[in-house]
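Justification of computing resources. Each target in the renewal requires a structure prediction run like the one illustrated here; the chain below, 184 residues long, is used simply to show the kind of job we budget for.
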Amino acid sequence: MTIPLGYCQCGCGHKTAICNRNWKRFGYVAGQPFRFIPGHNRRATRNPRVYVNRRVAGDPRGTVNEHVLVAEAALGKRLPRSAQVHHVDGNRRNNTRANLVICENQAYHLLLHVRARTVAAGGDPNIEQVCSVCGSVKPLDQFDRQRTNIGTGRTSQCKGCKARYYKVWYARHAERRKAAKEAA
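Resulting structure tokens:
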């Protein structure tokens, strides 16, 4: 028995398989052909926000990001599980050795991003940080300490922005509480 097939709507002319169940999230209907072959509905233009992948023959990982392969070649062995690779210029498609930094863990990787953001804003990353709300460079003492922040150990918003946020939040919360009392 042959299964009737539809054609991929990306224009490649290849046939697609029949969906075996309803999957509302993706728009699949049981008994109907898939609209696209997996991977064919992606944009043809190169997106700098997407990593370059390479298929490695004989590697149990199968497809590996190119920047990981370049970092492993420079290191001479596979990267540890917790290691991450940082792109210095922020371009995920620039996988030259000079552009990659091997980070021992996510905390160090995030710290590099925070410091790069501070330098790009014209500050000194040793004594200043950029507020994630107002975007201005402020001294480190303007940020509360936060043990759970694995990058810098400080909050991402300055004390002034944090105070304004909570002031608005408390006012909104008081209005809701007042409305609930009147409704009851």
